[in-house]
Amino acid sequence: VAEDVLTIAGTEVRSRLITGSGKYGNDRIIKDVLEAAECDIITVALRRIDFDAPDATILNHIPKGKVLLPNTSGARTAEEAVRLARLAKAMGCGNWIKIEVIGDQTYLFPDNEETVKATKALANEGFVVLPYMHPDLIIARRLVDAGAAAVMPLAAPIGSNQGLTTLNMLEILVAELDVPIIVDAGIGKPSHAAAAMEIGVDAILLNTAIASSDDPVSMARAFKFAVRAGRLAYLAGLAGESKTARPSSPLTGFLHEKNEGADDCRS
Amino acid sequence: MHITVNGKLFIASDDLTIEQLLDKHNLTDNPLVVEVNKVIVPRENYGLHCLATDDIVEILRFVGGG
Questions:
Q1: What is the average pLDDT score of chain A?
Q2: pLDDT (tens digit, 9 = 90+) per residue, A157-214?
Q3: A117 is catalytic
Q4: 3-state DSSP call for residue B20?
Q5: What percent of chain B has pLDDT over 90?
Q6: How close is the nearest chain B Cα to the Cα of A5, in Å?
Q7: pLDDT tens across A217-254, in order?
Q8: Is the Cβ of A54 closer than 8 Å to some Cβ of chain B?
Q9: What's chain A's Rg over C-alpha atoms?
Q10: Above 60 in pLDDT, residue A54?
Q11: Inter-chain contact B64–A93, Cβ cutoff 8 Å?
Q12: pLDDT at A260
């Protein structure tokens, strides 16, 4: 059997679980979380340096060899996202960027229009662009045309842990798009992650569900297995549903059955 | 002269270089990126780039995020 590898912009990614590095009480745990999750890609954010704690850099806690996926969180327009992306690239840790342009502060929903603009500008500059988006097929196609290496539709509001509230829309993206689909935001439980993988999305990006768990390392392991289980189920092909029962055991040879006729068993 | 660093006003001596500014804040060895008036300054220019009055300087680094 050929190895099931996810390819994003020519880079082979072995793990279909991508984790964020935010919300950890102590960043020292991140290394153990990454090991438990066995993930290859990790997201980070860019912020002003804290003069009172200048040594606090997340990079100390991320093992070498991981793909760093900086986000443009804090951006409200395409222009701000492009500025943040260029700053992130100047950090010298690669050219991948998660575009995050937020248009609403209550639900943290992405501004799809500004996201398309930023995707176009940054793809033209040679970035590997992974846009966080509301799962709309028409916008997804525009993002692909603009040069997105993958699309990252939300399952539910960021950090809400509500699960696959956009399931039907995600299924449409799976049916229609050729680029990888990474479900980002809203996944709260391993069962949500498995269910998303079962419908054929390519990967899961999550942060809060692991970071806010009582035991982030164990939860990271749980999500690793859930993502793998969902992927295997998708590849195997789910059996169809029906309204009525379909027996799993033979419908013949019951004890109460009466057999017609008489056989002569005298020798 | 006056410069704004990460949103805060600073009084600085004339011809302060970025390298000197970073040194003052013990940031010389940190992985960071510096932007002056919305233009990114390449690392190799930190010692040459003299700040001017009213410059707006942003010094950023990676933090945890999703």
A1: 94
A2: 999 999 999 999 999 999 999 999 999 999 999 999 999 999 999 999 999 999 999 9
A3: no
A4: helix
A5: 88
A6: 23
A7: 999 999 999 999 999 999 999 999 999 999 999 988 88
A8: yes
A9: 23
A10: yes
A11: no
A12: 82
Distance from CA of A60 to the nearest CA of B (A): 10
User: How far does the CA of residue B38 sit from the closest CA of chain A (Å)?
Assistant: 8
pLDDT given at position A57? 80
For B30, which DSSP code? S
Query: Cα-Cα-Cα-Cα dihedral of B14, B17, B22, B24, to 10°?
Result: -40
d(CA A23, CA A197): 25
pLDDT at A1: 52
Using CA atoms, how far apart are residues A100 and B9, in angstroms rounded to an integer? 29
- A153 confidence band (pLDDT: 50, 70, 90): very high
Contact with chain B for residue A87, Cβ under 8 A: yes
User: Does A54 sit within 8 Å of B30, measured CB to CB?
Assistant: yes
B61–A57 C-beta distance less than 8 A: yes
Separation in Å, CA A163 to CA A173, A195, B18, B57: 17, 9, 47, 41
Q: What is the pLDDT of residue A2?
A: 66
ipTM of the complex: 0.94
SS3 labels along chain A: CCCCCEEECCEEECCCEEEECCCCCCHHHHHHHHHHHCCCEEEEEEEECCCCCCCCCHHHHCCCCCEEEEECCCECCHHHHHHHHHHHHHCCCCCEEEECEECCCCCCCECHHHHHHHHHHHHHCCCEEEEEECCCHHHHHHHHHHCCCCEEECCCCCCCCCCCCCHHHHHHHHHHCCCCEEEECCCCCHHHHHHHHHCCCCEEEECHHHHCCCCHHHHHHHHHHHHHHHHHHHHHCCCCCCCCCCCCCCCCCCCCCCCCCCCCCCC
What's the average model confidence in pLDDT over A122-132? 98
Q: Can you give the length of chain B in residues? A: 66
Q: Is the confidence at residue A55, as pLDDT, over 90?
A: no
- Two structure tokens written together for A22: 């935010």
Interchain proximity B40–A87, CB inside 8 Å: yes
Pull the structure tokens for residue A48. 């002003």
